[in-house]
């Protein structure tokens, strides 16, 4: 997620030039690929052992333990969603394939009570279920390591959930409806349960397929690649297929009068922009930096890890690294060049390899922030150490109020110290071990546990092993100390 702007910005990139061209295809609709078509909102990844990549070991979150359930290992979500913009009603037919992590007679998912469940089936048979506050409880005989298909029919008027933050750019997360009946989602650290039944904790990655129906001229947009569009009875139904596993906070869905632009591909990766009709041209123009940003990030981190890249504009003041389809607010700040760089870096750090617990948000934001600083220095001529010393002053102030980056106050999610503290730590490490070892380590990490989820207990020893250095003093000081270390840069 993009850090919110301070009153005094570190570096202004608004004046930087070099926009790349894009070609218009706002009326085009790619033909469905029969090999990856979606039927009834559910599609399985191709090949034998189709869900093996989604098998994980979910954990109970140490920061937000009331969200998520370790008994459920979600493997695939098939989401068939119909949005009524006039009635503000969402109707869902969800098919969840999951693995039970233990022997139990009941499984639990997160789902807001505004979405009323009318029927549940387990492997095609009617099941007993109950909604208790935000919990959907489904009864059955579930065996350890058994795989089950859960079908859920629900409908209601979704509302976003309160965000545990003091940030100024967002106060709620999840399904958000605008005045004209359009809708969009951002959900960090949680909030996916405001629009579908989900194990809403980052350690549980799954495959996703979306079938999105809305009255024309609106259309739906989601993660992955658009594989089919059907127009019938005054409605538009769009199907998207995500061919990689992802955590629920990295999922995005939007309904609106969206247009599409195709940008020049980078390294064979197709790039698309989705923006509502009537979006100010300057914001669409800003997005044209995406191919250049992707090339720059690839120069630091290697090949882009996914098969496609998109940017989705929504009516928000924030931005989110939603996997393969970055969600950005329609503002000058959230569409500026360094924001785009920041969210693209997250496709490696946060999306490719993901913290299994929200205590380690710093693992995502610290490296995204550090590379954003490197980009700012390279593109503005401002010395890196000048940028970092200014960041150190903001970090010290934020830490004193919100706690250490790796032990922050749960009510202050995503504050400055979680971004700047570990970014400063990475520069201290770089200067201790040298550029060659540092950048080799930075590039290697996302592929070391590709598509997986990890904890700091795995990550920090790995960093020391890769660099051949004892870094415990820097880890302790920058991540856990109550008082900020003195930055040595």
Automatic annotation (TrEMBL):
Belongs to the peptidase M1 family. Residues 22-48 have a biased composition (Low complexity). One of its GO terms (molecular function) is metalloaminopeptidase activity. InterPro entries: Aminopeptidase_N-like_N (IPR045357), Aminopeptidase_N-like_N_sf (IPR042097), Peptidase_M1 (IPR001930), Peptidase_M1_aminopeptidases (IPR050344), Peptidase_M1_dom (IPR014782), Peptidase_M4/M1_CTD_sf (IPR027268). Its cofactor is Zn(2+). It catalyses: Release of an N-terminal amino acid, Xaa-|-Yaa- from a peptide, amide or arylamide. Xaa is preferably Ala, but may be most amino acids including Pro (slow action). When a terminal hydrophobic residue is followed by a prolyl residue, the two may be released as an intact Xaa-Pro dipeptide. Residues 22-53 are annotated as: Disordered. GO terms for cellular component: cytoplasm; extracellular space; membrane. GO terms for biological process: peptide catabolic process; proteolysis. Keywords: Aminopeptidase, Hydrolase, Metal-binding, Metalloprotease, Protease, Signal, Zinc. This is Aminopeptidase N. Residues 290-478 form the Peptidase M1 membrane alanine aminopeptidase domain. Residues 1-17 form the signal peptide. Its EC number is 3.4.11.2. Residues 75-250 form the Aminopeptidase N-like N-terminal domain.
């Amino acid at each position: 997620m993009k850090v919110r702007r301070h009153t005094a910005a570190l570096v202004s990139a608004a004046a930087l030039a070099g926009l790349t061209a894009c070609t218009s295809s706002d009326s085009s609709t790619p033909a469905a690929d029969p090999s990856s078509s979606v039927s009834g909102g559910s599609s399985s990844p191709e090949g034998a052992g189709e869900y093996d990549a989604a098998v994980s070991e979910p954990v109970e979150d140490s920061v937000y333990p009331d969200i998520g359930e370790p008994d459920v290992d979600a493997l695939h979500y098939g989401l068939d969603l119909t949005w009524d913009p006039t009635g503000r009603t969402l109707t869902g037919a969800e098919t969840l394939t999951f693995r039970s992590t233990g022997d139990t007679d009941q499984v639990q998912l997160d789902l807001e009570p505004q979405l009323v469940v009318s029927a549940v089936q387990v492997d095609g048979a009617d099941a007993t279920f109950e909604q208790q506050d935000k919990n959907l409880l489904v009864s059955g005989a579930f065996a350890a390591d058994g795989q089950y298909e859960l079908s859920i029919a629900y409908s209601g008027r979704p509302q976003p959930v309160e965000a545990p933050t003091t940030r100024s750019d967002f106060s709620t997360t999840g399904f958000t409806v605008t005045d004209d009946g359009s809708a969009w989602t951002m959900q960090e650290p949680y909030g996916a349960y405001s629009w579908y039944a989900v194990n809403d904790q980052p350690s549980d990655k799954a495959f996703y397929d979306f079938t999105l129906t809305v009255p024309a001229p609106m259309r739906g947009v989601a993660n992955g690649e658009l594989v089919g569009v059907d127009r019938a009875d005054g409605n538009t139904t769009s199907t998207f297929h995500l061919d990689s596993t992802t955590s629920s906070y990295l999922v995005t869905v939007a309904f609106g009068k969206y247009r599409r632009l195709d940008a020049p591909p980078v390294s064979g990766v197709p790039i698309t922009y989705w923006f509502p009709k009537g979006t100010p041209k300057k914001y669409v123009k800003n997005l044209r930096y995406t191919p250049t940003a992707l090339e720059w990030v690839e120069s630091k981190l290697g090949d882009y890890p996914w098969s496609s890249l998109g940017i989705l504009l929504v009516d928000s003041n924030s931005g989110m690294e939603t996997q393969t389809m970055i969600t950005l607010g329609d503002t000058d700040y959230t569409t500026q060049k360094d924001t785009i760089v920041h969210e693209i870096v997250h496709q490696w750090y946060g999306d490719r390899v993901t913290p299994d617990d929200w205590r380690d948000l710093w693992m995502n934001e610290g490296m995204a922030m550090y590379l954003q600083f490197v980009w700012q220095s390279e593109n503005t001529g401002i010395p890196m150490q000048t940028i970092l010393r200014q960041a150190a002053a903001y970090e010290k102030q934020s830490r004193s109020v919100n706690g250490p980056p790796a032990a922050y106050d749960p009510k202050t999610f995503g504050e400055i110290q979680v971004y700047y503290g570990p970014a400063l730590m990475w520069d201290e490490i770089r200067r201790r071990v040298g550029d060659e070892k540092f950048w080799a380590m930075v590039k290697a990490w996302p592929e070391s546990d590709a598509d997986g989820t990890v904890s700091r207990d795995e990550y920090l020893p790995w960093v020391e092993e890769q660099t051949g250095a004892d870094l415990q003093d820097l880890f302790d000081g920058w991540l856990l100390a109550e008082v900020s270390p003195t930055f040595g840069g």
